[in-house]
Design a protein that fits this description.
393 residues; mainly alpha; 3-stranded antiparallel beta sheet; 75% helix; 6% strand; flat
Length: 393
C-alpha cells in the first residue's frame, strides 16, 4: 500500500487536505467517496526508507513535541510529519494511527496497532497521558527519554569504533602476511641451506590457517545455538546471568537497565500515574529476565505493604545511593523527583563507565595489535633477514 495526499471538498462544501492509505489511485478515490468527500487533487507520496530506527522515532517525537506546544491538534501534528518525513513504513503506520483516532479510538490503542514500531514503554506512557490529559508533557518526556537513549548509544559506537578498527587492522595484517608472505618465506627457506623451517614460521603458515578454518566451521553452529538459547525464557535468564559475570560489561548492563527503569518511573509518576501502575510499566521495559525478576520481587514487597525504600533495599542489584534517594523522596512525598535524580545520576555513571570501557578496550586491542606485529616480524621477516644476511656473507 502507499500514501496518497489529497485535496477535496466535504459535503458541506469546505476544503479538506489530508492523507490516505490505498493500493492505487482508484482505491484512494473510492475511499474518499466513502467519506463523502469530492476529490479535487490526489497525488502519491514516494519514500525511500523502509526501516524504522531510533533516529526516525526521535524525529517524530521532536516534531510532535513542538507541534503540541504550539497548540496543534494531535492528528494535524501527525499528518504534518507525514508530509515531509521520508520513511514509508513509519508514515504508513502513522496514517493508520490518524484514522484510528478519527474513528474514536484512544491514543494508546491507536499506537499499539503499529506492529511493534512503538514499544510497550512508549505505548504505556501514552496511555498514562490519556488518564491525566497531559499528552504534551508525556510526549516531551518520551522525547527526553529517546534523546538520552540515542546519546549513550552514539557514545558507545564512538568509543568502541577505534578499538574495533585497530583489531580489524591487526587481523587483516595477519591474514595478508600468512596468505601472501608465508608461502614465499617457506619456499625461500626450503631452497636455501638444509631447508629447515623455523618453528614460529611453521606455526604461522600451518597452525593459523587451520585455526581459521575451524573457526569458520564452528561459527554457524555457534550462531544457531545462540538463537535457540535465546528462544526460551530460562535460557535467556541463563545467558544474562553469564553476561553479568563479565567484569565491567555486566555492571554496565545492570546500570543501563536500572537507568531505563528509573527514567520510565519518573515519566509515569510525573504524568500522575498510580505508583503500582508506573512500576508495572517500568518493569515491563526491562529485557533481561534476571533483572526483571529482581524488580518483580521488589514489587511484591511493596504490594505486601512494605515501604518503597525498604523494598528496594532487599534487592542485591540496587545500589545504596538509589535507596537513600528513594527514602528522601518517600519522606518528602515526591518520588517523581527522586527517580528523576536517580536516573540523571545513573546516566552520568553510564557515560563514565562507557568511556572507561572504551579506554580499556583501546589499550587492550592496541597491545594485541603490537603482539601480532611482533609475531609476524619474528616468524616471517626474521627468516628473510637471516637469509639476506647469509647471502651477503
Amino acid at each position: 500500500m502507499a500514501i496518497y495526499k489529497y485535496k477535496a471538498l466535504t459535503k458541506e462544501g469546505f476544503k479538506k487536505d489530508g492523507s490516505i492509505l490505498a493500493n492505487d489511485y482508484r482505491q484512494a478515490y473510492d475511499l474518499l467517496h466513502e467519506k463523502q468527500y469530492q476529490p479535487m487533487h490526489i497525488r502519491k507520496i514516494y519514500f525511500a526508507s523502509r526501516k524504522v530506527n531510533l533516529e526516525d522515532l526521535l524525529m517524530f517525537f521532536m516534531h510532535m513535541n513542538f507541534q503540541l506546544k504550539c497548540k496543534v491538534g494531535i492528528n494535524d501534528a501527525i499528518e504534518s510529519f507525514i508530509d515531509f518525513h521520508g520513511n514509508k513504513v513509519l508514515n504508513a503506520s502513522l496514517l493508520d494511527i490518524v484514522n484510528a483516532i478519527k474513528d474514536g479510538e484512544n491514543i494508546g490503542d491507536a499506537f499499539e496497532k503499529c506492529n511493534g514500531i512503538f514499544d510497550d514503554t512508549i505505548i504505556g506512557l501514552l496511555r498514562s497521558a490519556e488518564k491525566t490529559g497531559k499528552t504534551s508533557d508525556v510526549i516531551s518526556n518520551i522525547l527526553s527519554f529517546l534523546k538520552l537513549q540515542t546519546d549513550w548509544k552514539n557514545n558507545v559506537k564512538r568509543i568502541i569504533a577505534y578499538p574495533i578498527f585497530i583489531a580489524l587492522i591487526a587481523v587483516l595484517i595477519l591474514i595478508l602476511s600468512v596468505g601472501i608472505l608465508g608461502p614465499q618465506v617457506v619456499s625461500l627457506v626450503q631452497d636455501f641451506g638444509n631447508g629447515d623451517i623455523p618453528i614460529l614460521t611453521k606455526i604461522t603458515i600451518e597452525l593459523i590457517p587451520q585455526i581459521s578454518r575451524i573457526i569458520g566451521y564452528f561459527l554457524p553452529t555457534i550462531f544457531i545455538t545462540t538463537l535457540i538459547l535465546l528462544s526460551t525464557k530460562d535460557s535467556r535468564k541463563f545467558l544474562s546471568n553469564m553476561l553479568f559475570k563479565i567484569p565491567k560489561i555486566g555492571l554496565l548492563t545492570i546500570k543501563i537497565s536500572l537507568w531505563q527503569f528509573c527514567k520510565i518511573l519518573h515519566i509515569a509518576l510525573s504524568a500522575k500515574l498510580d505508583f503500582i501502575q508506573a512500576l508495572n510499566l517500568a518493569i515491563e521495559t526491562i529485557k533481561f529476565e534476571s533483572i526483571k525478576d529482581e524488580l518483580k520481587n521488589i514489587q511484591s514487597h511493596i504490594t505486601d505493604g512494605y515501604k518503597i525504600s525498604d523494598s528496594f533495599s532487599k534487592s542485591q542489584i540496587i545500589p545504596s545511593g538509589i535507596i537513600m534517594a528513594l527514602y528522601i523522596g518517600e519522606e518528602g512525598n515526591d518520588l517523581a523527583a527522586s527517580f528523576n535524580h536517580i536516573s540523571e545520576t545513573q546516566y552520568e555513571e553510564i557515560l563514565f563507565d562507557i568511556k572507561s570501557l572504551g579506554q580499556f578496550l583501546s589499550i587492550g586491542l592496541t597491545l594485541f595489535t603490537g603482539l601480532v606485529l611482533i609475531f609476524i616480524l619474528c616468524s616471517l621477516f626474521y627468516p628473510i633477514y637471516n637469509y639476506i644476511e647469509i647471502v651477503g656473507v
